From TrEMBL, chain B:
Alphabetically ordered keywords of this record: Membrane, Transmembrane, Transmembrane helix
Domain of life: Bacteria
Source species: Jeongeupia naejangsanensis
Stretches that traverse the bilayer: 25-46, 58-83
Pfam families: DUF485 (PF04341)
Cross-referenced PANTHER family: INNER MEMBRANE PROTEIN YJCH (PTHR38598)
Alphabetized InterPro entries for the sequence: DUF485, Inner_membrane_assoc
Protein name, as recorded: DUF485 domain-containing protein
Amino acid sequence: MMQRLSTRLTFAGMAMCASLPTWASGAIEGAVKQRDLNWHAIIMFVLFVAFTLGITYWAARRTRSAKDFYAAGGGITGFQNGLAIAGDYMSAASFLGISALVMGSGYDGLIYSIGFLVGWPLITFLVAERLRNLGKYTFADVASYRLSQTPVRCFAAVGTLVTVLLYLIAQMVGAGKLIQLLFGMSYSSAVLIVGVLMVMYVTFGGMLATTWVQIIKAVLLLCGATFMAFMVLAASGFSFETMFATAVATHPKGISIMSPGGLVKNPIDAISLGVGLMFGTAGLPHILMRFFTVKDAKEARKSVFYATGFIGYFYILTFIIGFGAIMLVLGRPEYTETIMKDGVSVTQLIGGANMAAVHLANAVGGDFFLGFISAVAFATILAVVSGLTLSGASAVSHDLYANVFARGRADEAHEIRVSKMATIALGVLAILLGIAFEKQNVAFMVGLAFSIAASANFPVLFMSMFWKGLTTRGAVIGGSAGLICAVLMIVLGPTVWVKTLGNAAAIFPYDNPSIFSMPLAFFVTWLVSTLDKSESAQRERALFLPQFIRSMTGIGAEGASKH
Amino acid sequence: MDEALIQRIQNNPKFQELQHKKTSLSWLLSIIMLVIYYGLILMIAFSPKTLGTPLSAGSVTTIGIPLGLLVIVSAFVLTGIYVRRANTEFDQLNKELIEETRQ
């Protein structure tokens, strides 16, 4: 049995290493068995919902202007925003996925955590304060600052909506399966609950409610993970050496979990994954939007500093939790089941490898703590989808409606109404897509979202802030080239072409396109802009200086609203 | 911002200083972060054995573990260095610049 378990784990580890997407969605692959109702979890989740709906009611009374709705009036502090950013970023996928990856292959899990973290310093050094000084509600404000509004905003809205929808589908499907497993509810009722609650948070409470839901969830998740890591360390006498030695003695792969494994086989994919994670983070619209919720550039900087600290700490915890799962969960009969898969019986963790952290919660804290962690996992999904939906709705109402359709002449009340309608539409769409994709393997979608963010949103945003020569034509054509290239490479790559569509061999050999698609976007943007000799291009280049001065000094930047 | 103000800011030596200091610090720190991260990735890709060396004879812990943790800590420390300098020195300079150029 140990042998079979080991084969299964090796396979799972390899599948996870092959690409970001396989684990990042947090979705449990394949069919999931419904469990008995988990009352601890349900009661704690109901408490979370009641509390956050109370906050939404409070926030709704403070949300009047467009600035309140999109940016919480600009009155969030750097520390609060740091927690909220961390909340946006520490999804159920990273909590369950990375700890499962560490349990399966040890050291490789750490490599992924690092990849997820190192984008943040770059955001601090190059993006955060410039974004805050130049923009108002969306990153399109910055990208279109001195360029032609209609084409650039349309491009940015498409980039935003595509990223948000892909991310949203992966989260919805992951939520449905996870909740089915943890709470014992049916898949569609779980998807429905997530959809309805997120629409309520966003339409009534706007950015203020969304921010507080993020903050509460981040605190709960950090506390839960800290407790688990503490218990794991306590079980090994607070010695890392003992913890590693026990894990190595238990794990079927033995000492090899202490050094890099699966990633080594394919350096190009490893580097490409690193590029996608690093620069994708700087192009995720729902993350970029968070920088407009603080007062000024100073608070924007502080928020990334706190966020980096929280996220780094969290990833160190998941590493310890993964090793704890090797010590306390792996191979224990009470957490293991034998199921039939493709006609072969396999022994695995109950609910699949991604349940490592959940079983560990039971092992270190009993039923009550298991309920707590399950409720936190649900809350986490809820918070992440709320942030995504708000960002998608802003692209529709602020970029497409107010600035393209109404050419900047829409009144605020109308713009907010459009935003709320867009939120409801996105909510309905998310529920329908969640149900439609139930049986599909959606694991590649988060990876695709990161790749598109790195290859379409990031290059245009970056060039608009740093390169005088950028023109409208260059931004739209270059960004679109990156977007199309990333989508094509993923569709033709091993994850979709072979594993999802069932073809024999992949046309594009790598799982992660960013190392090709991002430089392509930069190159095309540069080339087209340089060749652009039109009159409007001359004007746009001349406007760089005032933009640069504003981005440096903050003169003319949006302030916080006062009430 | 009107033309005259832009001219005044652009010609003010404090703006030159601010721009120079901020730009060089952000790029310097970005490059350090990239070197640290891709250094680790290249080691994983081309010399995984090095990372798998035990810390001391007979220990299970490998060099890769503290190195990996060091990358996480360095991300936090580098961010801290930037934020500290920007929020004190650069913001002070910026304030003086705005006061000098306002009419």
